[in-house]
Design a protein that fits this description.
CATH class of one domain: Alpha Beta
CATH superfamily of one domain: Beta Polymerase, domain 2
Radius of gyration: 28 Å
Structural class: alpha+beta
Bound molecules: adenosine-5'-triphosphate
Helix content: 40-55%
Shape: elongated
CATH architecture of one domain: 2-Layer Sandwich
Distance between the termini: 68 Å
Number of strands: 12
Strand content: 5-15%
Length: 468
Amino acid sequence: MQLGPWSQGRRAAMLYYRREVRQEGPGTPQQRHIDDFETAIASSLGGGGLAVFQTLRRLALKNSWRVYLVGGPVRDVLLDVAIKDLDFGVEGDAPVLAHQLAESLGGRVVTHARFMTATLIMPDLRVDLVTARREVYPRPGDLPRVFPGSVAEDLSRRDFSINALALPLWEIAPQVLDPEGGLADLDAGVVRVLHERSFRDDPTRLLRAARYEQRLGFELEGQTRRWLADAVAKGPRSKGLLGRVSGDRIRHELERIFEEKQPLPALRRAARLGVLAAIHPAWQEDMLTAGALSDAFRESFRDGATDHDSLMYLAGLVYHFSPAQGDTLIRRLNMPRAWSEVVRDTIHLRGIESRLAKEALPPSHTYSLLQSLSPAAVRAVAKITSSQRVSEAMNLFLDRLSGITPRLRGSDLISLGVAVGPMVSQILERLRDCRLDGQVDTGEDERRWVLEYLQAGKGSEDNPEKGD
Ligand code: ATP
């Protein structure tokens, strides 16, 4: 693991401190001193986020509010990587605090009473404030019931030790709370769950484990890996391990993977661990090598490729599906339209590859085969397909054909004598096809083409298209 200069400078001291405080015994949050964490946080945080942090820090110090920076941002500042989101925990009432923060900073507060959380929404920033809580899982896989609790309880419900860290902002010289040994795990570069039932309580953690492990370049800690394998192997037989988890939650975690800078390592890892197959049986590792996890797909995103579109990974994952399998997945993950379109269109595209691979296919045919399909699906299949001709036809469509429209407009056609009605758009489509196939170029060409078309008697409503 590569630690940045800030972390490196403190590693030895942190470990020393940790050994000291661990003597206090389990259960009580252990604290760790961090020198000048404000500078460290400032260097990991840009603009608006820094202002929020500093305001909350000032208010917490002044009013002794028991506010903590919790989870991901603490982990990230210790690893000296950019902080993505600011998450704050409050021993108290998060929505009340969010409103007070909004008084200082402006912005709109959205509260979620059931989860005792609030989000402060500012023009270019969202900040989550969460009431520290304890959770009870009525049944494995169900959403937990939540109750206000201490920060220690809040940290003990977390997914992994490296996320079970908090920094109390009301203390003058704050020390990281590390009740679960997350600092040592950060140091060792491991992802570790907090207890044996963790994956059964919440199987979405299976996907999260692969995501963090691959993002951070860590490894699953040995026992965690065994528990994970156990959970995958012993999921309830009738419904599968993730059978009790709602489609929305699974989809959300998949989306988090798609949005990673490098989604493929996490998807591959989840496939290797059998986690993807627990979501849909067609997601066996060997079947996936034809899709999102193929080398071709990965290569095309290397080194700052610009067309990173998270749904392309979904396309890659379903490329080898049958239409029926696609429909099952759409239902299982309760997919919104943008997702279900990508699934259906990707599967459809694979089915029409032989038509797209035809020699000398006129551009207008390529256009009509692709124009109604999701661009994310077309982009993805252009990368996945093993046929160079298909790939070229799709790229031609994406780069050039899809943007081509006639120079004449509907009003021009009407003034040339086309009857008002559906004929106008039909002729515009024909003109577009002519442009696509290079039969017309200038506006004058188009005008001539329309007049000839009308003279042939095809442009009036009582003689639509006959014999054409
Ligand atoms: P990052 O991906 O960088 O961690 P994040 O901090 O925004 O981003 P979230 O998924 O929003 O990550 O989760 C915020 C925190 O909530 C995590 O640090 C984790 O401790 C906790 N958390 C999220 N999901 C779960 C879960 N399923 N089980 C337990 N804890 C969770």
